[in-house]
Amino acid sequence: MTVVLRRVNRILLALVGLLLLVVGGAVLAAGLDLSVPSWWPWSGPSDVLLSRADRQRWRDEGWWWPVVIAALGILVLLFLWWLLAQFRRARLREVVIDTGDGDAAVIRGRALTSVLVADVAAQHGVADARVALTGRRTAPRARVALRLEPQAAPGETLHALTHEALANARTSTGLASLPAEARLRAVRHRASRVT
């Protein structure tokens, strides 16, 4: 789903960008009174986007307004779907582990993330930890967000994350690899006064 969503995003953004570039270029060229080809929709600064005849051409047709409203409604629904799809995160609900005997074991994604969160949050200097599993069911990836306390050492925290928490998760689940992306932020704190 995420690969399809990325492709749809790129195609839609490219089409919208191309359309805006062409329309903007045409309006700019006409507004600056540049020499434009004869087929160009606007010829000069005094030209209008839609003439009065163009605006009133379809007004008396009975099918015109229902078609316009239906087309605009479909466009609004498509853009709403696209907008909502941006906020949906593709989290793994389950991880499939090859047991080696021809069968597969299934681990719930929430169980694995909660164990990872508990492991990471127990480290010295970590104020808060969040873990999300992404990727495929057979090849999960971890996205880790850590908030560090002021006295925490980021290098030590990353070392502990890599060699303890993620290593424990790989070992206990039998995964060959568990790639991870870690984002570290410092906890906001008030400056201490020295008296």
Overview of the molecule:
This protein is an alpha+beta fold and 195 residues long. It folds into 3 domains: 1-49, no CATH class; 59-88; 94-186, Alpha-Beta Plaits, CATH 3.30.70. It has 5 helices and 5 strands, in the order αααββαββαβ. A 3-stranded mixed beta sheet has the order 3-4-5. The protein has a two-stranded antiparallel ribbon with strand order 1-2. The longest helix has 30 residues, at 2-31. The chain is elongated and about 75 Å long. The termini are far apart.
Primary descriptors:
5 strands; three-stranded mixed sheet; 195 residues; 3 domains; elongated; two-stranded antiparallel ribbon; alpha+beta; 5 helices
Number of helices: 5
Helix content: 40-55%
Strand percentage, roughly? Answer: 15-25%
CATH topology of the largest domain: Alpha-Beta Plaits
Strand and helix order? HHHEEHEEHE
Task: Give me the CATH architecture of the largest domain, please.
Answer: 2-Layer Sandwich
CATH class of the largest domain: Alpha Beta
Q: Helices and strands: which structural class?
A: alpha+beta
Concise summary:
By secondary structure, the protein is of the alpha+beta class. The chain has helices at residues 2-31, 52-56, 64-87, 109-121, 154-173, and strands at 94-98, 104-108, 126-135, 140-148, 180-186. The chain contains five helices and five strands; from the N terminus they run H-H-H-E-E-H-E-E-H-E.
